Amino acid sequence: MSVPSPFSSALAALAESQYEGAEAFLTACSTLRILLLGATDAKRRSVRRTNPRIASVIGVAGIEEAMLSLGFREEGERITLDDSVDRFAGVALLDSAAGGVRRHGLAPIQRTSDTKGWSAELHAPCVLDANPKFKGAVLDLRPRDGAPSGVLAFHNSPFSNWWPCGASIEFCHLGVSLRFATSEAILMAFKQHLLAPMAGVAPHASLAAALGTHAAIHSPAESKEVAARATRRASDYTWWAHHGVHVLVGAAVCLLKFSQDVGLRRLLLRTQGVLIVEAAPHDGAWGVAMNTSQALRAVDELPRRFGPRSEAQDPVQFDVGANRIIRPSCEANALGKALMVARDALLAGADAPASMELRDAVALAARQMRLDELPVDWECAERKLADALTASV
């Protein structure tokens, strides 16, 4: 096995740092800058284009074009830095990128889901088998009796609702076209409109108004905070989770998100037959209240506890007067289930283009969830959504 060159490792670190934050990005830039200035042996200044992390930084950050324009040469699947390269111009390029990050933070566009970005790691056949660990998610493909062919435990990755969608998520609601930077913003609009009355807060006049508010918010953290304030931080353990409304809404949103981006669609379909769980250690409604390591240590229990047809470990106690769940319901891992429903719908030929009405996307998700036989109170879930999806005022 060949040992990666310092230059290759530094460029890989630059790719990795894009998903960790500005400080990591600046550190990687500094390391690569030092190597460029001190590089002497051309044989140790070569990178493999097929390395997923290299492909990530080359494709997403636009570094490949800059490298070639500076005099790097292509040798098959390798890009090599030789003596003819203006290394000082390369350093200037890095300094410019680092300066931009210091002034404005790490640009979200560096995390888009184009085919050369993050999801490129999952596009090649069997790449999940060869690379079981990747940014923000871990795949376990060990065969086991009576379980799916694998388990994907994710947190910060394109499967997350917080992942910035490069081309945005688009749909129509009551004839009005809307665009969102993340799926989190759509979910928070639903949550704000539906749960505000429970918290004794006047909701938006309509779901359309709530969607309009969150469409103008580009930060998922800000969307979450706006919805939390508007609902007085109402818990997810309400009828919202008890009747599976959040799974239904989540599945419709995931169907829109993964239908409209080629890279994301390929990424999700590549997990066919795999149990998907959100390894969010502090979220037992949308996630499984475990991190990725904890989830995979309990991998044999995951299908029973968090699969599409999982059963509650304890009887659910629902306080009608307080309108909340006293004991968590079987609807933990709501995002994982929503992703699996969206995946099944895509595999069945469903599509949710930008021109689709939101209520039609919800109907598609509901139909697929019935086919998947998820244990949800469908009549109540759809009734609670019907008025919001059709009311114009």
TrEMBL record:
<dbReference type="InterPro" id="IPR037238">
    <property type="entry name" value="YbiA-like_sf"/>
</dbReference>
<feature type="domain" description="NADAR">
    <location>
        <begin position="156"/>
        <end position="346"/>
    </location>
</feature>
<dbReference type="InterPro" id="IPR036339">
    <property type="entry name" value="PUB-like_dom_sf"/>
</dbReference>
<dbReference type="InterPro" id="IPR012816">
    <property type="entry name" value="NADAR"/>
</dbReference>
<protein>
    <recommendedName>
        <fullName>NADAR domain-containing protein</fullName>
    </recommendedName>
</protein>
<dbReference type="Pfam" id="PF08719">
    <property type="entry name" value="NADAR"/>
</dbReference>
